[in-house]
Structure formats: C-alpha cells, structure tokens
Amino acid sequence: MIPSVNPSGSDTRGLLYYLYETGKYEDHTDPHLVASFDGMAPDPGRDPNATLTDLQRLLDQPVMALAQHARPAKHVWHTSVRVDPGDRILTDEEWAGIARRIVAATGVDPGEGQSGCRWAAVRHADDHIHIVATLVTEDGHRPDDFRSGARAQAEARLIEKELGLHQVAPGDGTAAQRPTSAERHKAKRQGRERTAREELRETVRRAVAGARSDAEFFDRLAAAGLLIRKRAAPSGDLLGYKVALPDDLNRDGEPVFYPGARLAPDLSLPRIRERWSAGAQDAPSAARQDAVRTGPGRPAAARRATASAVWQTVLAFGYGGDAVAAAHIAAAGEVLDALAKTSAAHTRSELREAAFAFERASRSHVRAVRGHDRALRQAARDLVQGGPALGRGEDGATTAMAIDMLFFLVTAAAHWHARKGHAQQAEAATQAAEHLRAAYQAAAAQPLGVLHQRGRRLSQPMLQRQTFLLREALPELAEQILTEPGWYALAATVAEAEAAGHDPAALLSEVAGRRELGTADSVSDVLVWRMRRAANLPADASQLPETSTTTTRSTKRETTTRASAPGRRRSGADAARPSR
C-alpha cells in the first residue's frame, strides 16, 4: 500500500472536480465518498442534490473563517492511497477505516479530543482512494502535519500487515519523489509511457553518466532536447538548474519546470558536481579519450573496456568499506544509463528498465566517497562517446559480455543493501538484475549460438581433451558444466584460448575462482565471457577462422615439446596430456 502525499495545493474545487470526473479517465468509475471528517459530508457522486461546490464550501469553511491576510496560500492537502495490483479488492468500509487512520497518523485529524482539519475520502477506482483536506483546524490553527508523507508510509506498513495486503519494503527517505496522480493521468492523456517527471529524471541521469564538467552536462541536456533554466548567484556563480520537456505545458501554455533536486536527491547540482570533481585529478589522458572517440569499432571497444572495469569492481566490491561500496553502486547506475542509451533495439528496452529500477538502488544514507569509482565512470563515458552499438557482430557480442559482468555487480549491490537493511534498494537491485538477465539472453543468443556450433564441430578426441582439462581445472563444477547446453561454447572458447598461446587449465581456474557463480543461470556461459575477456579473444567468434578452434597434430606435438622442455614447470593438466 503506497500513500502519495501532496501537501501544497490551493484549489479545493479543482481537485474535487478531477476526483469526480468520469468522462476523461477510464479508471474513474462510480466516484463517491467513503468517509469524511464528520461522516455527514455531501457526496456529489451518489447524492443527486449535492454538488461539488457544496463539498468544497464545507471543507474550506475553517479557511474562509480566517481573516483574508491570515488564510494560507497553499491550504489543500491531498494524498492517494493505492494497494498493490495483486491485492484483493477492499470494501468501502475497509477504505473508510484506512482513510481515518491515515489522517490521524499524519496529524491532519489526530482525534482523541484534538482539533483537526476537515477532510473527505473519495473512491473512484477499485484499487485506491484519494483523501482531500484543508489545512486549517476547526479552531483556526495549522495542524501538526510535519513529515506527513513519512508518517503516512509508516501507518501504511501497519495497515498492510493487519489487512493481509502486500507488504511494501520500508523506505529511508532517499527515494525520488513519486509522480502525482495528476502527473500520471496527464501522461496517459498525452500517450506518454512515463510521466514528465520520470522522463526528465531518466534524461538527466543519462546526461550525468560519465560527464566531467558543468558545461558538458548542460550541453548533453540541451542535445537531448530539454529546456533548461539556470539559477545563478549575484556573483554569477551557478547554483542550480531546472529542466522541462518542450511539450509538457501547464494550463497557461507554459513549460513545467522541475528542479534537479525534485527529480531525485542526487540530481541537485551540488551532488552532481561531487562526481566529476572527485575524478578530475585522475582523468585519463587526452590520447586515451581520442582513441575511444575516433578508434575503430568504438562501441565494441567501449563495451569490452566496460566489461573489464565492471569485473575489476566486482572483485574489489565490499573490501573498501561502505562509503566505497556506495560510490561503486552509484557509478554502476551511470554505466547502466550509458549502456541503455547506446544499445541496439533488441536489448534497449530491458536495459532501460534495468537502469530505471537500479536508480532506486543507487542512493542510500551511506554517503558515497567519490574518487574510488573513476574506472566505472570512465566506462560510462566510453560508452557514451563510443556511440550507438549495432545488435550484431562484435558490438552485439561485447554487449552480452558487458551485461554478463554487470549482472554480477548488480547482484553484489543487492546483497550489500540487504546486509545493510536497505530493503527498498535491495529489492530495486534485484529487479534490475532480472531485467539484465532478460537483456543478456537477447544479446547473447547469436554469439553463443556461433560458439555452440563450433564446439559441436570439434573432433571427438578434441572434445575428450577439453573434458579432461575441465575436470582437472574445475573438479567441483565440471559435471554440472558438462550437462549444460553452453558446454560446447565453452569447449570452443578453451580451444581458441589454447590456440592463442594461453594455458587453458590455468585460465579456467583463474576465471572460475573469482567471485561466486551460484546466481548464474549457466556457469558455462559465464566462463565463456570471462575467458574471452581475460584471453583478449574476440567476443564474436565468427570473426575467427574455423581452424582456430581445431588443434592440429603438429600443434599438439609443439605443445607437448614446450611442456617437456627443460626449465618449464608443467602444470597438472599439462603433465596429464598424452605425448605423441
């Protein structure tokens, strides 16, 4: 159950008109009162003799009783209370009880002999109600509604348990502000997938990803088509900013601007500046930046670099303290934003949803110590500068490689949040991991299919050899891997690594020994990407000639000769290979 409190309205009748309107909104059916401050308020929905003006005048009476100069400019308090889509349909009596508990908990109408405000609860859909109150008590004072949103949430957690409803993870005050009901309905009328607030938050986050200066950040916002207003001090120093969508207008035809801090707590200008000020002293050289910007295969190179940066972060995650972990998690959000922005159509939707979900996981009360996240922020920058990727070839395969690595980092973030008691963040990271899983399946199907076919075409002696190597290097995982469909892709990768001069047994042990594999759907798939990254093999095996996955007799003899040469210590796998 989610209360969404909006405590700063000024037009009681306008809000009531919206709540009782049935012609514009499909989900507005049979609007009617379920409760009110005295239980006797007129109901324009079911009483043919009652009007919206009657209800408005009754609610506003304590406000109008004040002298003109004493009336608050913003006197309308409004909250919607919505149950989870999977919950049962509550009765009007149950909603009435919920409304009374919410206004009591928030201080709008505390009861127990204390003077309260006038309010009414309107139901116009099965799954939610709206509570309207006017913020002047019967004795002419302002109610004690400080932090009414947090108090409503706390009461909702108790109601969920008592009524057997879906229990929402408790928040910690670091979440972005939810869209209001009016914003949601406006988005629906305009045919938007998300509200203007959510679209702006996503666009601003993408503009932040990998940016290094105010100028670059604002250039990206302008390139994305946003309207920008900057706030400056008398000295000319920039203090803040607001953004708007060009086609999101108010009733006067003016763009609706949102300050960065209202989009999300970490999108205020001072908080954004923390990201690039910490990395400025350790910025990569101009030569590296130019290589990413102008080199061949830019999207693929950026994705391979991202996979390496993410993997190094996974290995180090949790060892630098909570502040460092928080920095890595925040920077991982930038990488997800950049990857979603630059990915091909068949992965873009799931990656966008992953980034959207992980946004909630990127903030907590553990303040990030910036600077430790430079590698991830550079990866995000590389992705943006590398430009849009194709969904095939090396671009597509390196996308799968990067997503595979990100899955483990996002999963590590979910575990970290869970250990810290950050329930909402842990749930958000888990949701992001599921979207990454779906995106990975779309990205990996073609490149793994190529490797699978190459593995199937390996000779029987070669497959036996790879099986022997696997059992020698990974005795605890070998039997599981051999039963997975991805085994053939791994066998082909092992053959390629050996042909490139690597010790396949040592490489297998190395990539399997770092971090857990229990959350992987396919251990063999994970090992394929880790081996190809570690051995610097092309992510897209179709670039290699077919002979690269076949070891000839002369190659075997050469390998055996090298293994037997004086001064070279033979590994257990080398010693077990047959000589010819």
Class computed from helices, strands and strand pairing: alpha+beta
As for the CATH topology of the largest domain, it is BirA Bifunctional Protein, domain 2
The proportion of strand residues reads 5-15%
Question: How many extended strands?
Answer: 8
Please give the domain count. Answer: 4
Average of pLDDT: 88
CATH architecture of the largest domain: 2-Layer Sandwich
- Tell me the radius of gyration: 30 Å
Reading side by side through the largest sheet, how are the strands ordered?
1-3-5-4-2
**Overall 3D form:** elongated
CATH level-1 class of the largest domain? Alpha Beta
Instruction: Report helical residue fraction.
Output: 40-55%
Helix segment count? 23
Give the biggest beta sheet.
Answer: 5 strands, antiparallel
Distance between the termini: 72 Å
Low-confidence parts, pLDDT < 50 over ≥5 residues? 280-296, 547-580
Molecular structure report:
With 580 residues, the protein is α+β, with helices and mostly antiparallel strands. It has four domains: 167 residues, BirA Bifunctional Protein, domain 2 (2-Layer Sandwich), CATH 3.30.930; 87 residues, no CATH class; 160 residues; 120 residues, no CATH class. It contains 23 helices and eight strands. Strands 1-3-5-4-2 form a five-stranded antiparallel β-sheet, with helices on both faces. Strands 6-7-8 form a three-stranded antiparallel β-sheet. Helix 12 packs antiparallel against helix 13 and helix 19 runs parallel beside helix 21. The C terminus is likely disordered.
